[in-house]
Amino acid sequence: MEDAERGFMGTAGNNLITDGTGRTVWDLHAYGFLNKDCPDTANPSLWRQGKLCADHGLFEVTEGIYQVRGFDLSNMTLVEGERGILVIDPLLTTETAAAGLALYREHRGDRPVTGVLYTHSHVDHFGGVRGVVTDQDIADGVPVLAPLGFLEHAVSENVYAGTAMSRRSAYMYGAALPKGGRGQIGAGLGLTVSTGAVTLIPPTLDITRTGQTETVDGIRMVFQLTPGTEAPAELNIHFPDRSALCMAENATHNQHNLLTLRGAEVRDPRVWARYLTEAIDLFSGASDVAFASHHWPVWGREQLTRFLSEQRDLYAYLHDQTVRMLNRGMTALEIAEAMQMPPALERAWHTHGYYGSVSHNTKAIYQRYLGWFDGNPAHLWEHPPTEAARRYVDFMGGADEVVRRARQSFADGDFRWTAQVVNHVLFADPGHADARELQADALEQLGYGSENGTWRNFYLTGTLELRQGPVGTPTATTSPDMFAALTLDQLFDALAIRVDGPGSWDTDIALRWNITGQDPVTLHLRNGVLIHTAGHGPATPDPDVEVTLTEADLRSLLLGTVSPDDLAARPGVEIGGEAGKLAELLGHLTDPDPDFAVVTP
């Protein structure tokens, strides 16, 4: 509590952060209820974590380094230079970032932003950038620093599987839940996600190696690249003139995810642990404070070295013991049940599973090494959920009998089994009212007992949807800036994953884009697959239709902002060959479903 409140300088006078239409995107007072005693409907440990995360305002980390905390899921750090400030990780949305910058200026003066630094490729660390700088600022020489590979990973993660990840994020962060003792009390890593405008300004300076040094506005920085840890592109930063170490999101006050519940590529705990060892070796002896892009700092060399060492041991232990057990023939589910953490790590609050968990992290490690299949041939060709559920329910005496017996399990406090067995009833008969009611009750109890914030949010969002219907996707991480940052290669790949394969089995269309100032690109839809090739190689078919246009016009068409007919009418656009083939090809693309069912078929 003392560390979380240390350096507090003040907070915003208006608790509501709104967008241009007056819609609230963040409420600083929404979590005031956490100052009360923990109710029976929440895990006391998670309640404590939520209370720590709910502290909001401007905090001094050390001389010349400040953090805005509690204004979004993440922190924004501001480092004072000779003329202005370097902004590190400008939050998720422009509105919260702008409010955070205004708070800083209220207390420290109207200093200009003289640099921006993204520590890694997750959207809550760059999405608010246009709240602190403009395109003109960048044109005037304000640098934007980021780790090597940042842009590719930032846009690909949020575009290729963005719809599915956003829908699952609604569950993970509990965006539709009421805030309070029976609802959302945070996500462990922070409170929740803001709902404003997500933006992106591409980096102008890449950090390509550990040991690279850069000076921005007189601020000296030494970088450590940490790819494959908490993000595919990530870095830590040492400020030698201030004896301060920024750990990005590689060491925070909780166990992190090795595979986030919203979905992502599995992270490598072995590499993560090694980079933490390297950070200790490189920087701990010259650092008096370690801070991160979530939570609160750790002060003192001995304290921060212990903190980083325990974080390192956490991920190393999970990795080594999971691999040891899988080599003894244990499955992911068995390992998750058997894993016990060392008492010394269990006693450290910052290793607790408020965001990641021992259970789902061990399963992630198993998946990284062995994939989805546990080796049992009975699991090689199982029925999908609905077909399996119908058979299970039939074998168990019918839906009413399953619900009757599940009520006894619920009464016995076996909520986990209740949820597992009633799930079969719902997937066999989603309209079964008693099953929906019982399942909602079971998920609710599981949520109330969970120490993990994202588990609680998943359970309680499932409860909410069973009782009130789908909540959809309240927040989205795609934006015009995201799509503008896609390369044409990525844009064509994004089209390919929208092709209705079965609906285009018998289609054979080749379309050539003659793009002004670039090599031509040919799209070929055949066998339900959309392939793109550049130039005129042997794999390039003769086109059915050719379109001559600028890259800007091509992007407008592919992003759906102009129709094929409107495109044809634009100056400089020429369409030759079978013009109707363009619309025919685009007609084979399907739209993703942002509201797909989760707790029902």
Descriptive keywords:
601 residues, alpha+beta, eight-stranded mixed beta sheet, six-stranded mixed beta sheet, 21 strands, 38% helix, 16% strand
Secondary structure blueprint with pairings:
Layout: H1 2-5, E1 8-10, E2 16-18, E3 24-27, H2 44-53, E4 57-62, E5 65-69, E6 76-80, E7 85-88, H3 94-108, E8 113-117, H4 135-139, E9 144-147, H5 150-159, H6 162-172, E10 205-207, E11 213-216, E12 219-225, E13 235-239, E14 244-246, H7 269-283, E15 289-291, E16 298-299, H8 301-326, H9 332-338, H10 343-346, H11 358-370, H12 385-395, H13 399-411, H14 415-428, H15 433-449, H16 453-468, H17 480-485, H18 488-496, E17 508-515, E18 521-526, E19 529-534, E20 545-549, H19 551-558, H20 564-568, E21 574-577, H21 580-586
Parallel strand pairs: 7-8, 8-9, 9-10, 14-15, 17-20
Antiparallel strand pairs: 1-4, 2-3, 4-5, 5-6, 6-7, 11-12, 12-13, 13-14, 15-16, 17-18, 18-19, 20-21
